[in-house]
Amino acid sequence: MKAVDILLLIVSCLLITIIVLQKSREDASSAFSGEKSDLFANKKERGFEVWLTRITAILSVLFFVLAIWASFFVDRL
After folding, report:
1. Between vectors from CA 61 to CA 60 and to CA 64, what angle results, nearest 5°?
2. Which pTM value belongs to this model?
3. How far apart are CA 50 and CA 34, in angstroms?
4. pLDDT 10s digit of each residue in the chain, 77 long?
5. Under a CB-based contact definition with an 8 Å cutoff, are residues 22 and 52 in contact?
6. Distances 57 to 14, 31, 32 between C-alpha atoms, Å
7. Where are the alpha helices (DSSP H) in the chain?
8. Can you state the angle between helices 3-21 and 48-71, rounded to 10 degrees?
9. Other C-beta atoms lying within 10 Å of the C-beta of residue 11
10. Which residue of 16, 18, 19, 55 is surrounded by the most CB atoms within 10 Å?
11. Where are the domains positioned within the chain?
12. Under 8 Å CB-to-CB from 52, ≥6 apart: which residues?
């Protein structure tokens, strides 16, 4: 396993953890009924939610860059 693979594994685990920590903006009942709730449509993120959103964006970009970079290190036939 190369260093790129280990970094990709670490970033993917962090990304999964950060996504699970985020609060859902929709409740489960609207998913099954098909109706769209506009209750939180204009609510701005504050504090911890802003940091989670920023960290998620950074980790997702880093994940794609590492995935593309790791694809060049694959042994080709």
Report:
1. 85
2. 0.70
3. 28
4. 788 889 999 999 999 999 998 877 665 555 566 566 565 556 666 788 889 989 999 999 999 999 998 888 777 64
5. yes
6. 12, 25, 29
7. 3-21, 28-33, 48-71
8. 150
9. 19
10. 18
11. 1-21+45-77
12. 18, 21, 22
